[in-house]
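Researcher: Structure prediction, please.
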Amino acid sequence: MQHDPYSWEVEGPHFLPVQEVTESSQFLDATIKNWFAGMTNRERNQLVEVLYGLLTTGEVENAADIFQPKNIRTYVKALSSDADMRHILSTEFQGLLEAAKKARAGMSEGKELPQGQSEGLRVESEELRVEN
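Model: Predicted structure follows.
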């Protein structure tokens, strides 16, 4: 919903913050924070490079094009011929699954979800950096 400007609330020149974030948003936030926290800068850079390389093998002009059957066939063909790409994606997406399990376990135990862990992430010179 955050990308739908018609769902935003505005008072005067200011946006109004939401009072409560949905459980699914909290889960996604915790998952991504856990996933990035478990990667080194090098691993994050490799993942971005590999994903970009994979997606540019297809004919993608917008996000919906990513899942077009002709593009999926192109991705499968690219993955079948590049063992390094398969290894990097397999490793990092396994990390994503582990991060999701960790986030779900934290939510079911009633623990506070990680706050502010992504505040140190920023894009700088086309490279993702972490500041601690």
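Model: Residues 20 and 48 are 31 Å apart (CA to CA).
Researcher: Thanks, that helps.
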